[in-house]
Amino acid sequence: MTEFTYKPGGAVLKEFMKSDDFFRGLRGPVGSGKSVACCVELFRRALAQGKAKDGFRKSRWAVIRNTNPQLRTTTIKTWLDWFPENDFGHFAWSVPYTHRIRKGEIDLEVIFLALDRPEDVKKLLSLELTGVWINEARELPKSIIDACTMRVGRYPSMRDGGATWYGVICDTNAPEEDHWWAVMAGDVPVPDHISRDEALMLVKPDNWSFFTQPSGMTEKVNNKRLEGYEPNSLAENKKNLTENYYNNIIKGKTKSWIDVYVMNKLGSLEEGKPVYSGFKEELHISRETIPIAEVPVFVGIDFGLTPAAVFGQRLPMGKWLIVHELVCFDMGITRFSELLRAEIAKKFKGMDIDIYGDPSGDFRAQTDERTPFQVLRQNGIVAKPAPSNDVALRIEAVETAVNRLIDGEVGFLVDKSCINLKKGFNGGYHYRRIQVTGDRYDDRPYKNRYSHVHDALQYLMMGAGEGKSLIAGKSHKKSYVSNKGWDVFKPKKIKSTWDFLRRNG
Fold first, then answer.
1. Rounded CA gap, 39 and 305, in Å?
2. Domains of the chain (ranges plus CATH)?
3. DSSP state string for 144-205
4. pLDDT, tens digit only, all 505 positions of the chain
5. 383-385 and 412-414 as β-strands: parallel, antiparallel, unpaired?
6. Which sign does the torsion angle of CA 181, 184, 187, 192 carry?
7. Rounded-to-integer distance, Cα 266 and Cα 260, Å
8. CA angle, 17 as apex, 184 and 173 as ends, to 5°?
9. What's the half-sphere exposure (Cβ side, CA atoms, 13 Å) at 304?
């Protein structure tokens, strides 16, 4: 019998390895020992596999990473650090990379796959496996995880006794807040804009478990302001790290990087230069749900195939509360208008609603004689073009509110449920760097999944009057300015969006 000694470097690592659940996910900061734990767990299960008739403990595993460079330089390197060729047998460096270990009673085949080529995905779907280890699971969609669950428990065959244990193990750094991992682990609620079938796919089965390790450091906060970091006494795998490991790696890093890789917080990393330099998550994102106030609701809408709506309220003293967002993907204006109508009826019943959209929505699409505003109106949503589409003015309208102080408190607060807005503020909505070195950036925000919801926020702020003084004092070339003679927003029978909803249910 082959002997192998490993001691988990923390309580969470220990619980992860004690579990026999079909699916186990381990999330932790860098340096927390999660990848090593998965390597050892794979080998431990090979040791525990029942003997076949020939006396060998047979098992076959697939180890999966998103891309080939990551697989070779990170995953395989970690594996061979623990199971070197000179002790555990030849490693085949031709694709698919394979390590066949025949040592004592063990007959273990480990196949390493990157999924950046279609043929590799096809290879995965054809394998007969005991188990799968997915390294850095945040990089892969839920569909790949589901495919893996269908390939395990198929080796060894029943005539050789079948698999003693089979399943899927995963490790990852903290994913984004709308990632399947975050939803299934119960860290965030199921998005309310997805279909019922999609929501059911994100319900955690009884035989799935998620394990979250402690952060590498803790935050030093004074008067709600972050002053720095200090070592976390509960951090795992410390015996295998240098004394100042985390202190050294956080130097020169952004808060978003530290949040993901050291604090083990859900989130996204800054790319380029954030559009709103004055935004601070600890100040501008609510810790609790913001209650809806008894004041009018302003809505900003951005059109296109990634339509978005942002809902906000301005309190009498000028403080802005951004209370809700609706973000959809690959969706036309007709379907989006239906969802928007339902959202208004559900969350803002009976309230005064004032809606503003992208002024370029005055123009007809090539595939439809109707403008987006006309489509909205036909669904009972009475919207108006925002006063201007000048990007600089729109950004300044939001920036002014973000930087506002009222009685010593911030004058702009976003509800914690507005995940896309928050990720955009934290760097997802950014100016792209235009050279590798130096600080040269594009003069317009980069168009990506976060730009649409932030465009909607800007239309909200412009329509609600935050941009009036800016428009009066600045010229804005190549911008759309709303047509004051536009009459589609003054229907004779429907006076408001809520009037339509009240009449039509």
1. 42
2. 11-212 (3.40.50.300), 282-504 (3.30.420.280)
3. HHHHHHHHBT-SS-GGGT--SS-EEEEEES---TTSHHHHHTTSSPPPTTS-HHHHHTTSPP
4. 455 678 999 999 999 999 999 999 999 999 999 999 999 999 999 999 999 999 999 999 999 999 999 999 999 999 999 999 999 999 999 989 999 999 999 999 999 999 887 778 888 889 999 999 999 999 999 999 999 999 999 999 999 999 999 999 999 999 988 899 999 999 988 876 677 888 899 999 999 999 999 999 999 988 778 889 999 999 999 999 998 999 999 998 888 889 999 999 998 776 678 999 899 988 999 999 999 999 999 999 999 888 999 999 999 999 999 999 999 887 888 999 999 999 999 999 889 999 999 988 655 443 456 789 999 998 889 999 999 999 999 999 999 999 999 988 999 999 999 989 998 998 889 988 776 555 678 889 988 888 999 999 999 999 998 877 666 655 443 434 444 443 333 444 444 555 545 555 4
5. unpaired
6. positive
7. 6
8. 50
9. 19
Q: In the block, which residue shows the tokens 């007709």? A: 334
Cis peptide, bond prior to residue 214, ω within 30 of zero: no
Strands of 412-414's sheet in order across: 383-385, 353-357, 297-302, 308-314, 320-327, 412-414
Residue 295, Cα to own-chain centre: how many angstroms? 32
Q: How far apart are CA 447 and CA 439, in angstroms?
A: 19
* Cβ–Cβ < 8 Å for 262, 170: no
